[in-house]
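User: Sorry, what's this?
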Amino acid sequence: MKAIIIDDERLARLELRKLLQEFPEIEVIDEAVNADEAISKIEATQPDLIFLDIQMPGKTGFDMLAELDKSPHVIFTTAHHEFALKAFEVNALDYLMKPVEPKRLADAIQKLQISENKEIRTDTEFTNNSILSENDQVFVKDGERCWFVKLSDIRLFESVGNYAKVFFANNKPLILKSLNALEERLDEKIFFRANRKHIVNLRMIEKIEPYFNGGLLLDMKGGEKIEVSRRQTVKFKEMMSL
Protein backbone atom coordinates (compact mmCIF):
# COMPACT_ATOMS: atom_id res chain seq x y z
CA MET A 1 0.00 0.00 0.00
CA LYS A 2 1.53 3.31 -1.14
CA ALA A 3 1.68 6.18 1.35
CA ILE A 4 2.77 9.82 1.48
CA ILE A 5 3.78 11.65 4.67
CA ILE A 6 2.66 15.29 4.73
CA ASP A 7 4.19 17.37 7.52
CA ASP A 8 6.19 20.60 7.64
CA GLU A 9 8.40 19.25 10.46
CA ARG A 10 11.36 17.26 9.14
CA LEU A 11 11.94 15.39 12.42
CA ALA A 12 8.28 14.37 12.57
CA ARG A 13 8.52 12.93 9.05
CA LEU A 14 11.71 11.03 9.90
CA GLU A 15 10.22 9.60 13.10
CA LEU A 16 7.06 8.43 11.32
CA ARG A 17 9.12 6.81 8.55
CA LYS A 18 11.09 4.96 11.22
CA LEU A 19 7.92 3.72 12.95
CA LEU A 20 6.41 2.59 9.64
CA GLN A 21 9.35 0.25 9.02
CA GLU A 22 7.53 -2.15 11.34
CA PHE A 23 4.70 -2.36 8.79
CA PRO A 24 6.08 -3.80 5.52
CA GLU A 25 2.64 -3.56 3.92
CA ILE A 26 2.99 0.26 3.99
CA GLU A 27 5.40 1.67 1.41
CA VAL A 28 6.25 5.36 1.93
CA ILE A 29 6.73 6.61 -1.63
CA ASP A 30 7.10 10.34 -0.98
CA GLU A 31 6.91 13.25 1.46
CA ALA A 32 5.50 16.78 1.29
CA VAL A 33 6.06 19.80 3.52
CA ASN A 34 2.91 21.79 2.72
CA ALA A 35 -0.56 21.41 1.22
CA ASP A 36 0.25 22.64 -2.31
CA GLU A 37 3.20 20.27 -2.65
CA ALA A 38 1.06 17.46 -1.25
CA ILE A 39 -1.77 18.03 -3.74
CA SER A 40 0.67 17.91 -6.64
CA LYS A 41 2.28 14.68 -5.39
CA ILE A 42 -1.05 13.01 -4.58
CA GLU A 43 -2.38 13.73 -8.07
CA ALA A 44 0.87 12.48 -9.65
CA THR A 45 1.33 9.26 -7.64
CA GLN A 46 -2.23 8.34 -6.52
CA PRO A 47 -1.27 6.96 -3.08
CA ASP A 48 -3.61 4.67 -1.15
CA LEU A 49 -2.91 6.44 2.15
CA ILE A 50 -1.69 9.78 3.46
CA PHE A 51 -0.38 10.66 6.91
CA LEU A 52 -1.48 14.27 7.26
CA ASP A 53 -0.49 17.06 9.63
CA ILE A 54 -3.13 19.74 10.25
CA GLN A 55 -1.30 22.97 11.10
CA MET A 56 1.14 23.73 8.29
CA PRO A 57 2.38 27.00 6.72
CA GLY A 58 -0.25 28.34 4.34
CA LYS A 59 -3.13 25.90 3.97
CA THR A 60 -4.16 23.48 6.70
CA GLY A 61 -4.59 19.75 6.21
CA PHE A 62 -8.36 20.29 6.04
CA ASP A 63 -7.92 22.95 3.33
CA MET A 64 -5.85 20.46 1.36
CA LEU A 65 -8.45 17.71 1.57
CA ALA A 66 -11.15 20.13 0.37
CA GLU A 67 -9.17 20.71 -2.84
CA LEU A 68 -8.80 17.02 -3.69
CA ASP A 69 -11.36 15.49 -6.02
CA LYS A 70 -10.43 11.98 -4.88
CA SER A 71 -9.05 11.49 -1.41
CA PRO A 72 -6.91 8.52 -0.34
CA HIS A 73 -7.33 7.05 3.13
CA VAL A 74 -6.33 9.67 5.70
CA ILE A 75 -4.60 9.24 9.05
CA PHE A 76 -4.04 12.58 10.80
CA THR A 77 -0.82 13.13 12.76
CA THR A 78 -0.91 16.32 14.82
CA ALA A 79 0.02 17.98 18.08
CA HIS A 80 -3.43 19.60 18.37
CA HIS A 81 -6.18 17.54 20.04
CA GLU A 82 -8.94 20.11 19.39
CA PHE A 83 -9.39 19.11 15.74
CA ALA A 84 -10.30 15.48 16.45
CA LEU A 85 -14.05 15.87 15.86
CA LYS A 86 -13.55 17.71 12.59
CA ALA A 87 -11.10 15.02 11.48
CA PHE A 88 -13.74 12.32 11.68
CA GLU A 89 -16.26 14.55 9.89
CA VAL A 90 -14.00 14.26 6.83
CA ASN A 91 -13.93 10.45 7.22
CA ALA A 92 -10.39 10.15 8.57
CA LEU A 93 -9.38 6.62 9.56
CA ASP A 94 -7.63 7.79 12.72
CA TYR A 95 -6.24 10.78 14.59
CA LEU A 96 -2.77 10.32 16.07
CA MET A 97 -1.26 12.74 18.54
CA LYS A 98 2.43 13.65 18.27
CA PRO A 99 4.76 12.18 19.28
CA VAL A 100 3.12 9.19 17.61
CA GLU A 101 3.05 6.12 19.85
CA PRO A 102 3.85 2.75 18.19
CA LYS A 103 0.74 1.13 19.71
CA ARG A 104 -1.57 3.87 18.38
CA LEU A 105 0.04 3.63 14.95
CA ALA A 106 -0.52 -0.14 14.96
CA ASP A 107 -4.19 0.44 15.83
CA ALA A 108 -4.52 2.90 12.93
CA ILE A 109 -2.96 0.45 10.45
CA GLN A 110 -5.37 -2.23 11.68
CA LYS A 111 -8.32 0.12 10.99
CA LEU A 112 -6.92 0.66 7.51
CA GLN A 113 -6.75 -3.08 6.85
CA ILE A 114 -10.33 -3.57 8.07
CA SER A 115 -11.52 -0.76 5.80
CA GLU A 116 -9.68 -2.24 2.81
CA ASN A 117 -11.15 -5.69 3.47
CA LYS A 118 -14.67 -4.23 3.52
CA GLU A 119 -14.15 -2.74 0.07
CA ILE A 120 -12.70 -6.00 -1.27
CA ARG A 121 -15.70 -7.98 0.01
CA THR A 122 -18.08 -5.47 -1.51
CA ASP A 123 -16.36 -5.60 -4.88
CA THR A 124 -16.70 -9.39 -5.01
CA GLU A 125 -20.48 -9.05 -4.91
CA PHE A 126 -20.33 -7.97 -8.56
CA THR A 127 -20.09 -10.75 -11.12
CA ASN A 128 -17.52 -8.87 -13.21
CA ASN A 129 -15.64 -5.58 -13.39
CA SER A 130 -16.88 -4.45 -16.80
CA ILE A 131 -18.19 -0.93 -17.36
CA LEU A 132 -21.93 -0.72 -16.74
CA SER A 133 -24.11 0.91 -19.38
CA GLU A 134 -27.03 3.20 -18.63
CA ASN A 135 -29.45 0.42 -19.63
CA ASP A 136 -28.02 -2.06 -17.11
CA GLN A 137 -29.99 -2.84 -13.99
CA VAL A 138 -28.24 -3.01 -10.63
CA PHE A 139 -29.35 -4.68 -7.43
CA VAL A 140 -29.50 -2.30 -4.46
CA LYS A 141 -30.10 -3.59 -0.92
CA ASP A 142 -30.45 -1.43 2.19
CA GLY A 143 -31.46 -3.38 5.29
CA GLU A 144 -34.64 -5.29 4.48
CA ARG A 145 -35.45 -3.22 1.39
CA CYS A 146 -34.29 -4.23 -2.09
CA TRP A 147 -34.55 -2.65 -5.54
CA PHE A 148 -33.60 -3.47 -9.11
CA VAL A 149 -32.69 -0.07 -10.49
CA LYS A 150 -31.87 0.90 -14.05
CA LEU A 151 -28.65 2.95 -14.01
CA SER A 152 -30.26 5.66 -16.15
CA ASP A 153 -32.76 6.23 -13.32
CA ILE A 154 -30.01 6.98 -10.80
CA ARG A 155 -29.35 10.71 -10.71
CA LEU A 156 -26.62 10.87 -8.08
CA PHE A 157 -24.16 8.94 -5.89
CA GLU A 158 -22.97 10.53 -2.64
CA SER A 159 -20.03 9.37 -0.52
CA VAL A 160 -20.80 8.62 3.14
CA GLY A 161 -17.58 7.26 4.63
CA ASN A 162 -17.05 3.73 3.26
CA TYR A 163 -20.61 3.73 1.91
CA ALA A 164 -22.35 5.46 -0.98
CA LYS A 165 -25.87 6.87 -0.98
CA VAL A 166 -27.79 6.11 -4.19
CA PHE A 167 -30.38 8.69 -5.29
CA PHE A 168 -33.26 7.46 -7.49
CA ALA A 169 -36.93 8.51 -7.46
CA ASN A 170 -37.67 9.29 -3.78
CA ASN A 171 -35.19 6.70 -2.48
CA LYS A 172 -31.71 7.22 -1.01
CA PRO A 173 -30.43 3.81 0.16
CA LEU A 174 -26.87 3.23 1.33
CA ILE A 175 -24.63 0.60 -0.26
CA LEU A 176 -21.31 -0.66 1.07
CA LYS A 177 -19.17 0.57 -1.78
CA SER A 178 -16.77 3.49 -2.03
CA LEU A 179 -17.26 6.27 -4.56
CA ASN A 180 -13.90 5.47 -6.15
CA ALA A 181 -14.92 1.83 -6.69
CA LEU A 182 -18.23 2.93 -8.20
CA GLU A 183 -16.53 5.38 -10.52
CA GLU A 184 -14.48 2.55 -12.03
CA ARG A 185 -17.68 0.72 -13.05
CA LEU A 186 -19.66 3.69 -14.40
CA ASP A 187 -19.63 5.02 -17.96
CA GLU A 188 -17.82 8.38 -17.78
CA LYS A 189 -19.92 9.67 -20.69
CA ILE A 190 -23.01 9.39 -18.47
CA PHE A 191 -21.72 9.68 -14.90
CA PHE A 192 -19.40 12.53 -13.93
CA ARG A 193 -17.30 12.93 -10.77
CA ALA A 194 -18.32 16.44 -9.69
CA ASN A 195 -16.23 16.56 -6.52
CA ARG A 196 -14.83 14.36 -3.73
CA LYS A 197 -18.29 13.39 -2.50
CA HIS A 198 -20.52 13.22 -5.59
CA ILE A 199 -20.94 11.46 -8.92
CA VAL A 200 -23.80 12.87 -10.99
CA ASN A 201 -25.82 11.54 -13.92
CA LEU A 202 -25.22 14.13 -16.66
CA ARG A 203 -28.70 13.48 -18.07
CA MET A 204 -30.32 14.32 -14.75
CA ILE A 205 -29.00 17.90 -14.67
CA GLU A 206 -31.71 20.52 -15.02
CA LYS A 207 -29.68 23.70 -14.67
CA ILE A 208 -26.04 24.81 -14.53
CA GLU A 209 -24.99 27.99 -12.73
CA PRO A 210 -21.63 29.72 -12.15
CA TYR A 211 -20.39 29.26 -8.58
CA PHE A 212 -17.71 30.90 -6.46
CA ASN A 213 -13.98 30.22 -6.97
CA GLY A 214 -14.58 29.40 -10.62
CA GLY A 215 -16.71 26.32 -9.96
CA LEU A 216 -20.21 25.41 -11.12
CA LEU A 217 -23.46 24.58 -9.34
CA LEU A 218 -25.64 21.80 -10.78
CA ASP A 219 -29.39 21.68 -10.13
CA MET A 220 -30.43 18.03 -10.31
CA LYS A 221 -33.92 16.78 -11.26
CA GLY A 222 -34.49 15.62 -7.68
CA GLY A 223 -33.88 19.11 -6.33
CA GLU A 224 -30.33 18.51 -5.12
CA LYS A 225 -27.71 21.21 -5.71
CA ILE A 226 -24.23 19.80 -6.36
CA GLU A 227 -21.08 21.86 -6.54
CA VAL A 228 -18.54 21.04 -9.25
CA SER A 229 -15.05 21.61 -7.88
CA ARG A 230 -12.80 24.10 -9.63
CA ARG A 231 -10.60 21.34 -11.06
CA GLN A 232 -13.52 19.25 -12.27
CA THR A 233 -15.20 22.33 -13.78
CA VAL A 234 -12.44 22.49 -16.39
CA LYS A 235 -13.04 18.84 -17.31
CA PHE A 236 -16.83 19.35 -17.26
CA LYS A 237 -16.66 22.27 -19.69
CA GLU A 238 -14.40 20.30 -22.04
CA MET A 239 -16.82 17.35 -22.01
CA MET A 240 -19.93 19.43 -22.59
CA SER A 241 -18.56 21.76 -25.30
CA LEU A 242 -18.75 21.16 -29.04
